[in-house]
């Protein structure tokens, strides 16, 4: 996708899923972990999961802002906003990214935003993706390991994004860690597809003990809400962050928030019974939240983050953000610089981007067969797969095993890269 206009001229409509009998594909998968099941390519969007991960960097300006702040509570607020912004692009993104092949990579350099990123598929069964982003001016490092667990529950697909995100603000000698919320795609069989995030995200500053707990509320129109307090390790409450992960985030003094909620309750807010009715399960399609819903701003609040509007005709382009539209870009001469494992070079992904569904299906099957044959050959020779850019080590902040960047990618010595395509 060399530009938004060029893409729309070439492919004004994404590949239609209207003629696909979803139930015939998924009826045997209820309660199963979907990562081991080959899904039709028509379910996909023309991006690899490694590229989806890179979308965490869309709002890198928030990291730069955190680096510039002198107060640790203010930094925590902005880091929390960054953590939420990292999942905001998933709203209405109901296409499944391509499963990365073992050894697949993706690199992204954005000089105007001051960072570069490298990611690698370090395991196939179970699927594990590792990424590392770093400031071009040595201001921060952001890295993580993700091993998503996908399950089909009849009407919905639930994704549990296991793995830890680590953000290091080098100037302040601070490290923050958190895990992403649960994600659910509703109405897989019947009705309009829609996505919600839910669960608790705890962000910990390992240097100061500051903690921020974000509660992504589930069900219907309440599924986009989040609000929670930030506190020091001695439990003193400082600020409350509130808003919607699809829209914006605000911060306000804890006492102001509490008094506002009390006044709202006296005035007659939404009852618990109404909320339960909104979230009720049934045989019908799950109601999709109202897209026009907005956040009521409490007086004295500070805006932390606001989502970037989607580009025109986004609904015809897998609901991509402007950032996502650029991820398959190939500048002149770029192909010669990329690692041969970069997902922009995947033939099935390229075929789907060009609107060639049959070609994408044929190439996907060929690549999967090639990967199985390589795995069989390694087993026969009693060889272990060797990752190229990441190694399992102990995360110094969580104490847990993690895949950490071993360096060297941007020196561009790709002579020993595996032939995966």
UniProtKB/TrEMBL annotation:
Q: What is this protein called?
A: Oxysterol-binding protein
Query: Sorted alphabetically, which PROSITE patterns does this protein's record hold?
Result: OSBP
Q: Which organism is it from?
A: Gadus morhua
A matching Pfam family: Oxysterol_BP
User: Which family is this sequence assigned to?
Assistant: Belongs to the OSBP family.
What GO terms describe the biological role, i.e. biological process, of this protein? lipid transport
This protein's UniProt keywords:
Lipid transport, Lipid-binding, Transport
For this protein, the record's InterPro entries field holds: OSBP_sf (IPR037239), Oxysterol-bd (IPR000648), Oxysterol-bd_CS (IPR018494)
For molecular function, the Gene Ontology terms on record are: cholesterol binding
Supply the SUPFAM superfamilies for this chain. Answer: Oxysterol-binding protein-like
An example GO CC term for this entry is: plasma membrane
Composition bias type Basic and acidic residues, residue spans: 361-381
Q: Does the keyword Transport apply?
A: yes
From the UniProt entry, list the residue stretches annotated as the region Disordered: 263-287, 357-387
């Amino acid at each position: 996708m060399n530009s938004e206009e060029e893409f729309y001229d070439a492919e004004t409509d994404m590949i239609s899923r209207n003629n696909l009998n979803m139930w015939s594909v998924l009826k045997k998968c209820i309660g199963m972990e979907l990562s081991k099941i080959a899904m039709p390519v028509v379910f996909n969007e023309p991006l690899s999961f490694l590229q989806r991960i890179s979308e965490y960097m869309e709002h890198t300006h928030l990291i730069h802002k955190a680096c510039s702040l002198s107060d640790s509570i203010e930094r925590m607020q902005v880091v929390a906003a960054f953590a939420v912004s990292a999942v905001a692009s998933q709203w209405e993104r109901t296409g499944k990214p391509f499963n990365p092949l073992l050894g697949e990579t993706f690199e992204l350099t954005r000089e105007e935003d001051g960072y570069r990123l490298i990611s690698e598929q370090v395991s196939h069964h179970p699927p594990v993706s590792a990424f590392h982003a770093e400031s071009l001016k040595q201001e921060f490092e952001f890295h993580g390991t993700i091993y998503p667990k996908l399950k089909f529950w009849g009407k919905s697909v639930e994704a549990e994004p296991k793995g830890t995100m680590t953000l290091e603000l080098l100037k302040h000698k601070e490290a923050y860690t958190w895990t992403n919320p649960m994600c659910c795609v509703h109405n897989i069989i019947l009705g309009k597809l829609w996505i919600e995030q839910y669960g608790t995200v705890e962000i910990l500053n390992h240097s100061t003990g500051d903690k921020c707990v974000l509660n992504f509320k589930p069900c219907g129109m309440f599924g986009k809400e989040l609000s929670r307090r930030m506190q020091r390790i001695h439990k003193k409450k400082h600020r409350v962050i509130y808003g919607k992960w699809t829209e914006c985030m605000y911060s306000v003094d804890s006492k102001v928030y509490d008094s506002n909620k009390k006044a709202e309750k006296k005035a007659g807010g939404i009852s618990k019974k109404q909320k339960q009715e909104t979230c009720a399960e049934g045989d019908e399609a799950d109601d999709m939240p109202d897209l026009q819903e907005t956040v009521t701003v409490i007086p004295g609040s500070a805006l932390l983050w606001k989502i970037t509007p989607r580009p025109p005709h986004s609904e015809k382009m897998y609901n991509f953000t402007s950032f996502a539209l650029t991820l398959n870009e190939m500048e002149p001469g770029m192909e010669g610089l990329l690692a041969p494992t970069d997902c922009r070079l995947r033939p099935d992904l390229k075929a789907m981007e060009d609107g060639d569904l049959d070609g994408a299906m044929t190439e996907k099957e060929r690549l999967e067969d090639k990967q199985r044959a390589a795995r069989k050959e390694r087993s026969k020779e009693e060889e272990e797969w060797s990752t190229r850019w990441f190694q399992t080590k102990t995360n110094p902040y969580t104490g847990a095993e993690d895949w950490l960047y071993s360096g060297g990618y941007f020196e561009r010595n790709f002579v020993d890269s595996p032939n995966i395509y």
